[in-house]
Design a protein that fits this description.
heterotrimer; A mainly alpha (310); B mainly alpha (307); C alpha/beta (251); B: 307 residues; mainly alpha; two-stranded antiparallel sheet; 11 helices; 74% helix; globular; C: six-stranded mixed β-sheet; 35% helix
């Protein structure tokens, strides 16, 4: 029990800090918007960390699942449906379905081919979104309003939205941790390290990986719902392959060997972006080299800092 | 009338295919020979376009701009290889993807900082600015024909270089038997750097050629880069011949799809919707092809035999 | 001889123009240790891959306990009780020894599509794992990460994993390779205790171990079986002397 506490101390600390943030000087609209973005991306990145770190599958199309979740909100919004009871399951279901179907095909490949085929599927989703002329095509779609919970405009309140994001983030982290610690997770991680050995023991890695893809996709869809609500706007840019690259970077920056590495990476990413863009108009001139240096020198990611066993 | 329109679109597709080939050639060699996945290759294309355009303006001649853009692209390629890429050869593909993604962010932003976000318009090069009458009723831009011509020269030259010369033989051998070739006294590192530099120059060349045809804008390399990945997957990683065929295929499918699909869709959709949906579906076609190849024939059309 | 546990009938495998396994037939009985020897390049590993399902043959059939498994995948054969070890030790380096074996036990203990309960706290799996670890002499190393085990210990660990899948046939690809003298003695003793409990196909270069353990020995040269018989028969066989012992006289 104490061991569990020690290994999970950092993510619990981060979650506690996020809970306290609005009451210790980060309660203004600007800070809350920034933190919400960090938590939402963190949620998507935790799902991706389950794939990259847990299953050893580097997807370069994960932003598509976030985009599909966001587009589900927009589409239902256009149809006049904004109840969370419908929006959330539809968004999660659509994203999970996309991830499951494309995963079923992608998992027939491995290594760099997997990176490329997920990129191809991500691009297909991107161009599909661009083609939805009734949702604004390339220009995107502005929501009439945020998703309602039991008919109430709960998400309109910035503070309430903050805690909804935080609660769901914690829930996603708990679910992913639970899954990795289960029988299923043990087989998944074993297949990541040594698929031949795992097959020789009688397991077929494919269904385990497919379930992981679908789960990560569903989480991406949930993050998409929150993202659409945070910005009240949806556009194909959400699905761009560069977004997938950023998510992948968050996972690696945070440390792929830990699920919460995704969260650390996303928060660091958003804060860094904010800080640098205040420093310099062309802030990516600094951000790009930092990214390169992080890949070259920060091998274990942020979660690996100060840990001797790596 | 429709047949001449079709001919124009075919030529446009060929011309786009040639540009794709010039970009893919370097990418496929670097990926095939060094097993290095370089997302920043598209940046070379963009920089080639910008360098040719702005130097052309400075010196008052597109041709001088083009001539200067080639060695500069080469130099940028060498610098990037020395600064970033050579530290990644021993790393996994994921690290390579991310680090070269960082290079894209940096150089796209640098382009915006130097040249602004608005697209540059590049005038047609002197001497090739007009149209050529292909039939009495059909004129076609001379510059686009020149691009197709450039492809007809470069492709056989490159194939000869890789398949028939000693340097090409060493490059091919070096990819599969690195230790043996090193033992023969060949500096593998320098050989790979050479491949890299030539690839970068070709991509820069493609960008310079593309300037007068397409808008020169930040991020223009990203779209081309992903299409180039489609090309090398379809053509077979490391295969020049495969890159030629697949480039033309992708160029034609993309161009003809954009031209024809909206017309087809107009039968069932409103014109504005048909245009948007048609363009998107056309873009999607090539990715469907890529996914199908990765899944059913991962070695591509022309697999490079590995010993 | 009773019904064989494993039966190869006219199995061939070609790579390009090279015939690596040539219309080979072989029977292995319940409870026997059947050694497969042969010079390097004789096709021993290919044969193991054909038996375990990593490769599928171009011709011929593989019968396991009377069932035709020729077209079965590696994992399906494993589930049916055909367990293998690898020539190059294949364990999960990042897992502890206990978790390695518990994973193997998990393959035989109900569905692994369970997502909620922490597997590390499944006492039945851990008990089974620790029992197998103790049986191979690794009882004290259960909590150690596999990557920090010695080469010989990894060999023992892999054996424990194989045993934990409750197999009927063990296919062991050079289980003694790279083990020191002390480790070899321990592993040979261990294999001896397994005789009678499972059918064992043993591919091994260590001739002392082979002659000490095997009930029957088959000699493979250039993809074909030259002779099958007990130690004395094999030793005396003229073709074995020229083809095998001549090739590798120190063996």
């Amino acid at each position: 029990m104490t061991r569990a506490l020690r290994t999970q101390a950092l993510p619990l600390l981060v979650l506690a800090a996020l809970a306290a943030a609005p009451f210790v000087g980060f309660g203004d609209g600007f800070a809350l918007t920034l933190l919400a973005r960090g938590m939402i991306l963190g949620m998507a990145a935790i799902g991706l960390a389950l794939l990259v770190g847990g299953a050893g599958l580097a997807s370069l199309g994960h932003a598509a699942t976030v985009g599909i979740g966001a587009y589900a909100v927009a589409w239902l919004d256009l149809a006049g449906i904004d109840g969370a009871g419908i929006v959330v399951p539809v968004a999660i279901g659509a994203a999970a379905l996309f991830a499951g179907v494309t995963g079923a095909v992608s998992l027939r490949t491995s290594g760099v081919h997997f990176i490329m085929i997920t990129l191809a599927f991500g691009q297909m989703a991107f161009f599909t979104a661009s083609s939805l002329s009734f949702l604004g095509g390339d220009d995107g779609y502005t929501l009439y309003g945020r998703t309602t919970v039991f008919g109430a405009g709960l998400l309109q309140n910035r503070l309430a939205f903050h805690f909804v994001c935080l609660g769901l983030l914690a829930l996603v982290w708990l679910i992913c941790s639970m899954v990795l610690d289960s029988r299923f997770g043990r087989v998944l991680q074993a297949a990541r390290d040594n698929p031949l050995r795992v097959r020789a023991l009688g397991f077929s890695p494919y269904p385990y990986r497919l379930i992981a893809c679908t789960l990560a996709g569903g989480i991406g869809g949930l993050a998409g719902v929150l993202l659409a609500n945070a910005t009240e706007f949806v556009s194909p840019a959400t699905l761009a392959w560069t977004r997938s690259g950023e998510l992948l970077f968050m996972v690696i920056l945070g440390g792929a060997s830990r699920l919460y590495g995704g969260l650390l990476g996303a928060l660091a990413f958003v804060l860094l972006e904010e800080w640098l863009s205040g420093l310099l108009t062309y802030w990516r001139l600094l951000f790009g080299p930092l990214l390169i240096l992080a890949v070259l020198f920060l091998r274990g990611g942020l979660a690996g800092l100060g840990r001797r066993d790596g | 009338m429709t047949s001449t329109l079709l001919l124009v679109q075919l030529l446009n597709g060929l011309q786009f295919g040639v540009l794709l080939f010039l970009v893919s050639a370097g990418l496929t060699l670097v990926f095939g020979v060094m097993d290095f996945i370089n997302l920043a290759h598209g940046v070379q294309y963009m920089l080639g376009a910008y360098l040719a355009a702005s130097l052309g303006t400075v010196f008052g001649s597109f041709w001088i701009g083009l001539a200067l853009a080639l060695p500069l692209s080469l130099a940028i390629g060498l610098a990037l290889e020395w600064l970033v890429f050579r530290h990644l050869y021993d790393r996994d593909h994921l690290s390579q993807v991310l680090a070269t993604f960082g290079v894209i962010l940096t150089l796209d932003e640098a382009t915006r900082a130097i040249w602004g976000s608005a697209p540059l318009n590049v005038p047609q090069p002197a001497g090739l600015s007009g149209g050529i009458m292909l039939t009495p009723a059909l004129g076609y831009p001379a510059w686009r024909l020149a691009i197709i011509g450039a492809g007809l020269v470069v492709a056989p030259l490159l194939w000869w270089l890789v398949e028939r010369t000693r340097a090409g033989m060493l490059v091919r051998a070096g990819s599969t038997h690195r230790a043996i070739v090193s033992a023969l006294g060949v500096d593998i590192g320098r050989l790979f750097t050479l491949v890299f530099a030539i690839g970068a120059m070709l991509a820069g060349f493609a960008g310079a050629l593309a300037g007068p045809v397409y808008a020169v804008a930040p991020g223009m390399g990203d779209t081309v880069l992903i299409l180039a990945f489609v090309v090398i997957v379809i053509g077979g990683v490391g295969s020049i011949r495969g890159a030629v065929i697949a480039s033309l295929l992708v160029g034609l499918v993309d161009t003809l799809g954009r031209a024809l699909l909206p017309d087809l869709l107009r039968l069932v959709l409103a014109p504005a919707a048909a245009r948007q949906t048609g363009a998107a579906l056309a873009s999607m076609l090539v990715y469907v092809a890529m996914a199908a190849f990765l899944c059913l024939r991962p070695a591509g059309l022309f697999p490079v035999r590995r010993a | 001889m009773a019904d064989p546990l494993l039966s190869l009938k006219g199995v061939s495998k070609r790579f390009g123009g090279l015939t690596v396994t040539d219309t080979l037939s072989l029977d292995l009985c319940q409870g026997e240790i059947h050694a497969l020897i042969g010079p390097n390049g004789a096709g021993k590993t290919t044969l193991i891959n054909l038996i375990s399902g990593t490769l599928s043959p171009d011709e011929g059939r593989v019968l396991f306990a009377g069932t035709d498994v020729t077209r079965w995948s590696l994992q399906r054969r494993a589930r049916a009780g055909l367990a293998r070890s690898f020539q190059i030790t294949s364990v999960l380096e990042r897992f502890t020894a206990r978790d390695n074996v518990a994973l193997a036990a998990q393959a035989r203990a109900g569905s692994s599509f369970r997502f909620v309960r922490p597997v590390a706290r499944e006492a039945a799996l851990n008990r089974a794992a620790e029992a197998e670890l103790a049986a191979v002499g690794l009882g004290s190393r259960a909590g150690t990460q596999a990557a920090s085990l010695s080469h010989g210990e990894k060999r023992q660990l892999e054996l424990a994993m194989v045993l934990a899948t409750a197999p009927r046939l063990l296919v062991l690809d050079e289980p003694l390779a790279g083990a020191g003298p002390e480790e070899t003695a321990r592993l040979v003793g261990l294999l001896r205790t397994l005789r009678g409990r499972f059918g064992i196909l043993l591919v091994e270069h260590d001739m002392d171990a082979v002659f000490a353990l095997a009930d029957r020995i088959s000699v493979l040269v250039n993809g074909r079986l030259v002779v099958t018989g007990d130690a004395a028969t094999v030793r005396a066989h003229p073709e074995v002397r020229s083809a095998y012992l001549g090739d590798d006289a120190l063996a």
